[in-house]
Amino acid sequence: xxxxxxxxxxxxxxxxxxxxxxxxxxxxxxxxxxxxxxxxxxxxxxxxxxxxxxxxxxxxxxxxxxxxxxxxxxxxxxxxxxxxxxxxxxxxxxxxxxxxxxxxxxxxxxxxxxxxxxxxxxxxxxxxxxxxxxxxxxxxxxxxxxxxxxxxxxxxxxxxxxxxxxxxxxxxxxxx
Amino acid sequence: xxxxxxxxxxxxxxxxxxxxxxxxxxxxxxxxxxxxxxxxxxxxxxxxxxxxxxxxxxxxxxxxxxxxxxxxxxxxxxxxxxxxxxxxxxxxxxxxxxxxxxxxxxxxxxxxxxxxxxxxxxxxxxxxxxxxxxxxxxxxxxxxxxxxxxxxxxxxxxxxxxxxxxxxxxxxxxxxxxxxxxxxxxxxxxxxxxxxxxxxxxxxxxxxxxxxxxxxxxxxxxxxxxxxxxxxxxxxxxxxxxxxxxxxxxxxxxxxxxxxxxxxxxxxxxxxxxxxxxxxxxxxxxxxxxxxxxxxxxxxxxxxxxxxxxxx
Lengths: 176, 312
Fold this sequence. Notes:
Helix content of chain A: 55-70%
Shape of chain B: elongated
Oligomer: heterodimer
Number of strands of chain B: 0
Radius of gyration of chain B: 26 Å
Distance between the termini of chain B: 107 Å
Radius of gyration of chain A: 17 Å
Number of strands of chain A: 0
Number of domains of chain A: 2
Helix content of chain B: 55-70%
Distance between the termini of chain A: 40 Å
Strand content of chain B: under 5%
CATH architecture of the largest domain in chain A: Orthogonal Bundle
Structural class of chain A: mainly alpha
Number of helices of chain A: 8
Shape of chain A: globular
Largest sheet of chain A: none
């Protein structure tokens, strides 16, 4: 049963719960799409603010998770359009811009792929395959949900996932 | 999916915000949200009320934004401490939090005052019920002060009055929960202090009643506080407080006394006359804490010890 938030004066409690549940996932999604940790934090904040504006406008959010991902995707697409020149990003730039995986304790134990490696691999994946792969295998959304979020058919999403996975395996093989 | 790909996605999923980052970002979002409150128009309210009331009866729920914030802070104690430090010590949040302290209902910053800053202080307190009860008393006092401030302006609307009445009721219920856990000897003292806050507020409102811009709202609020106070005293097994002079409802006994003395009924008596307005005026008026004074408030003359080294 997807989480819903009704637009009413007591919605702030539901909104706080939604933040607690989805903030990390939306942040992660933004991070792997823009390769800038600090920018990803701002984008995540923007996503939640847009969600609140939607509620203030008197509209209900029937599926919070889907709404947040859809909003994030729209913002990221706009962001990419605005900054096309910045799409050529070096791995050093990613590190400098703060692309790092930080856990609760800041340590990096038992990890095969560090932040830099993940960034390298994902950056080599082309859009729209990258977005599909991130949504399916990192955000753990179903192909049907991805199709709804991207306004595509489930068939198109499946094709993107298959091709994306082939590309990913090739990249990982060369990486190893 | 092969092992390497699984490992790749497993590592990628470990990207997350630290608790501190999450809390700071939430602070920004909640400040933004506080400035844009969701409200319904009167038609929507009327349409939705029946359904909501039925739903509430079916699913009693005490969760509010404050409680949600509380529960969130309960699981992120370290983060909460960092937030409190940030707000108290300074920075942008500190400025907003400080500025919000003077806010009254209807102001943009009022939500920050009552739903962010005050719960943060609440969370910073230990679980000592006495300290929590004292903070609860202060929160009630803050709401009452807001009314005192509003009562001198045209902004004391029925809507604001209703919201403040709700808050007083809610805060009183929360305070009672803390008081129930305070040891009995301290509890009585705390109850006295709470009662004193409410009594002083009632006295203040009666005093300014004539000059208030929204007289009806001031009277209605004062009656409401009187009701809350009476219920609290009943719960604490104390007799009802003596009625205060109110032009609309002057007790007959007081009216007669004041007529006999030729004093006006429609004004608050000065402090030295106030004893006449008590129904229980037959009781000695000597205050237990004011030792050295008799029933008329005169200081008892006690022999003074001679000062050392005094020369005539």
